[in-house]
Amino acid sequence: MTDRLKLVTWNINSVRLRMPIVEHLIDQIAPDVICLQETKCPDANFPENAFRKAGYEHMAINGQKGYHGVATVSRRPLTNTEKRDFCNVGDSRHVAVDVPFNGSSLRLHNFYVPAGGDEPNREVNPKFGHKLDFMSEMHDWLQGEETDRPAVLVGDLNVAPYEHDVWSHKQLLKVVSHTPVETELFENVREKGGWLDAMRQFTPLEEKLYTWWSYRAKDWSKADKGRRLDHVWVSGPLAPHVKGTTVMREARGWEKPSDHAPVIAVFEA
Prior knowledge:
Strand order of the largest sheet: 3-4-2-1-14-13
Number of strands: 14
Order of helices and strands: EHEHEEEEEHEHHEHEHEEEE
Radius of gyration: 17 Å
Shape: globular
């Protein structure tokens, strides 16, 4: 019997404010698992009842008041919840769980990597230094035992690594999220752990691929000055089961939208 798992990752930019469009997404595509980032609420204020009403009984939440926050909600049971405090600063930027799949389980990491501020220089911008330190810690951890098993890593990783992950490679080389120091470290994290970039398995490197469009654009769709900040990585043992990934671009145009679009990944066994 085929096991099919549909997963969505989405930087929601305040889950309570945007719960109506989360419910719309559920109505549209009925995912099995939803990974949210930038939920911006403490665990006690997370809209659990709304998710339960929609059929998502299982939740792993790592939130804080007004900032950051990640949450994984699921129709399938979640076990072995882990919340890692990167850089020992107390930010809620990670939650991992085991999800039943293919008669066993897969390890699911949900990340919200620091954005890094505006100036790509750690000497004058501590936020940029924090981002690099965060990714260095990812590099040291997300390998070996973490990737020898079926695993998927999703979230707003706040780096657009390739030339066509941004609207203008030349103009963004000195802009945080696409600077060489970030993209090289980002690729080192992925390659050291043996992770595969699932989205680029289905969209060739020479094609533009975005998941984020700034609120500042008067007409975000027409200007189309996007970046791919949201990612789906899979470990070697899970890679054969990835059947497709899709950026749900239309969600960026929904009422009171996030500036990120949801990314859908489908796994089959």
